[in-house]
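Model: Ready when you are.
Researcher: Fold this.
Model:
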Amino acid sequence: MPARIYQRPKNAMQSGKARTADWLLEFEPAEAKRPDPLMGWTGSGDTQQQVVLRFGSEVEAKAYADRYGIETHVTPTPPRKLKLQSYADNFR
């Protein structure tokens, strides 16, 4: 079952950078989600989709995947762009 390794991006709604240094290994869905006929909730029988593993570095995540024979692809972290401006720039 394929998985992807990525670094969690910074939350756009908060200024903090908590848990952005963690690397995550997340399995890709094996089947599509479908609505439940009775309740209308979406779901699937794929339980691997619920598993998210956290690692301290990309190397540790790759080593884990290699040890257990998990096919992975790494999603690179986008560069952070800082827009530096003063408060007075909001009124120009």
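Researcher: Now this one.
Model:
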Amino acid sequence: MPSSPSFVAMSLRGDDGGGEAGYAIATGFKNAMSAFSFVFRHFIAWGVVFAIAVSILSSFDFLPGFLVSVFILAMLGAWLLQMARVIVHVRRIRLLHPGSGPLPLAIRQQRTIDLPVGAEMAFGMLEAAVRELPRARVTESARDSLQLFATVPRRIRDQGEHHIPNPRHRLAQDHVSAQVVGDDEASSIRLLCEPATDPWMDLLFVDDGANIENADAIARALNRRVRESRRQEREEMREVRATRELALARLNLLNAQVEPHFLYNTLASAQLLTRSAPAKADEMLGNLITYLRRSLPQEGNFVAPLAREVERARSYLEIMKVRMGERLNIEIDVPLDLEGIRLPAMMLQTLVENAIRHGLEPREAGGTVWINARGGNATGKVTICVADDGEGLREDSSGTGVGLRNITERLALTYGDTASLRVTANIPRGIVASIEIPREIPTEDV
């Protein structure tokens, strides 16, 4: 019984520290009895065969007496030779399993191997492990039913000019049959390694430990492949973590690329307005405070709600409106249900700054900046547009600047290929910059 060793160990362990020695003695005695029983069974089986053969030969009165004696001596020699093989088998099993556990003397070995991988992956590992056995030949491999059958010829020593047994003979080959059960998370392999002979022949012949070697080799190969799989997963996780940290560092760098001249010019304008128009100076400084508060990067957070980004862009445009006067008009249309949409910080600000710097400031008459957001289209994404009616597409504003390149890179780092930036001409004049992003950003990606 499988529970016997544990029961013996529990009953012999005491406070005097002799439990381990008692367990070893009990296990050794049990193994000796098992070995004696194994040898005795084969001795009796061959004795029965010998007795039957002698009785049959004795009934043949026409056979010469010396010929009967020769047959009897030959049968007796075969009996003794087989007993020697049985004893060698037991000895070899002891060498293969030198521990203090029970000896697996049975010729047919059945194992249940639990693997922390899905059933399909376990079947792939099993098939590779069986093919790695020396001389193994997979005869059937049914991936749909997760079953596998293989034939393994036994190792044959080179005996020079002497006769070498045919490896395809049933006495010289073994079978491996296995079935995988489980789900996508964990699985078990039911493995059976047995001789190619019929079960009743187990009383007469031994396999010299071949099937135990096959079962142990498959178990070791599976264990090695699981370790390799886990090591590869850890390496992939380290690579993903390193890539993510690099991406966050690059996003932080991109987020910090804010035009410093805007701050200098705004402070200079506020200083002048304190003498001529204190109210406008106060309004400009208030918008500057709001802009700076929304522009400070937050550690570990490189995305922000659309409402926060719109508030920063509005503060920036209000500051520019004080500086540009009637030359600048502002129109913002962002539905309430889209204000919670998150997007990379400073991205909307970059588009607004481009609209002012390259579109409206060079134009003497100025113009209008539109900010709008729309969602619920056929792709289930959100489209955020910044448009102007300024100078339009020119060679120095064709979408190849640092700001637009940063936006394209940040979209790729944050969303992969599920987001895009498009810069097109506005009608009748100006530029429309459109960002299309998914409604949600997975937490691990930000």
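Researcher: Key takeaway?
Model: Confidence is low (pLDDT under 50) at residues 1-17, 158-164.
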